[in-house]
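ok trying again, last paste got cut off:
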Amino acid sequence: MNLRVLLEQRLGEALAAAGMPAAPAMVRPSAKPKFGDYQANGCMAAAKHAGINPRDLAEKVAAAADLGDLAETLDVAGPGFINITLRTDWLAGQLTARLDEEKLGIDAPPDPQTVVVDYSSPNLAKEMHVGHLRSTIIGDALARSLEFLGHHVIRQNHVGDWGTQFGMLLAHLDDVAGNEGEQAELADLEEFYRQAKQQFDSDPGFADKARQVVVSLQAGDKDCQAKWRRFLAVSLDHCQAVYDRLGVTLTPDDVRGESSYNDDLPKVVEDLQAPGLLEESQGAQCVFLDAFRGKGPDGTDLPVIVRKSDGGYLYATTDLAAMRYRSGTLGADRVLYVTDSRQGTHFAQVFGVARKAGFVGKDVSLEHVPFGMMLGPDRRPFKTRTGGTVKLVDLLAEAEQRARAIVDQKNPDLPADRKATIALAVGIGAVKYADLVQNRSSDYVFSWDKMLSLEGNTAPYMQYAYARVCSIFRKGQAEMDAVTGRIDLTEPAERALGVQLAQLPEIVQAVADECLPSVLCAYLYDLAGAFMSFYEACPVLKADEPIRTNRLALCRLTARTIKTGLGLLGIETIEQM
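nice, full thing came through this time. structure:
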């Protein structure tokens, strides 16, 4: 049960009864628990709009609200806040029911959506680098959360597997002597790309050959396409190895690259031409949207170019074809594009063209999910010490090594295989959580010390919090999953923990609605803090029955909630650190 939605609904009905049928209740968890568990602020905005006294309206709403089954008190405060204190017995009953619920109180949506999540999308001409990290882990957290809520999620890895750079790479592949040499070269895609680019820039003859290869590839030359597919297979294997190491849910079946839409590109241009949406500008075919008139350099109109003067197509053309496929073939109700914020104008334009051309259904939600950059200590884009691009596989290997050093220092007597398991979970988890905990739209400075710390809102701290709960059951020689019975909330610290636990459904819904994994990170950190306060104030194993079992049940629900929350972020939990 999403408690926030329930309160919004009930108070919305009370607002309607008070003469405000369209006013939202604006319910949120209370910032100061001593005044209540939730607070509704909608009366002030509604009263201002209607020109009446907000406190008088709040009094009428509180009197009309049908909340007796779940709320102990509704108190009007200040200029018109309504503070809501939940009934403790009702709250305890909700938590008791969740002990064995797979979804921890999350009900299936009445109208589940088909949601396409476009994320990661590396360029297959190179190995994945740190620039792909944010898209990959933010997109994966959103896909997991949406699935957990009960929506049908279709992952789309829109890889860059087409274009002029492949002519350069395939031409260089031709120059590699023999199959063994070819395989050795392709083992390091970054070096292979560097060599090809250097030759392309310095050798006019090679550059001409590369351009001719592009023509042959696009014309369907069988030999060129066979080499292209072999190159893609090697590159995709590199990507999948990174995905597996990173613990994200992308698979080869989710790959649908730019080349998938190649045959549809002429049709996209035709379907824009037919209703008169295309205009010629300097030989190129363009769409000019009213919203972007005068938005270009020196006040010029900013076009959406769909075909260049030489007949070639652009990213916008491919994106339009993809939108039509996702709406028409996949039946998407909602499409999320998880890319960096610098692509904001591009997506605003192609969304506008897709809607104007009728490429997507009127009710399909197209959403750009932008994120900021990962920066180095110098607050510039993250690079190696020599200024080069950081391979993602190298970053993850270093994370594991650093985590292993910490494990060796703190638990030197653990078996080697156990140390390796912990180091992998902590290292990869630290990298992912350090990104997800940030406000998505902000840049952030990458810091090994901060992300691997056992203090503060970090993955190691959250993993330790989970392990600490598990240790209670080991010390008490109790099987966690066997703890059942009714949860009672008699102590203030028990109740405070209970209120936090009750909020999981609304938190996960907020992650899905707002595309903000950081909301879940903040919730888990607060939950861990509430548990620590409970543990210090309320002895568990030394308590007499039935209090002991009751508190063990609270511990069990806390552990399940932390594990579930971290799992939605793609982070592994460990029972012993």
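cool. The mean pLDDT is 92. Residues 472 and 478 are 8 Å apart (CA to CA).
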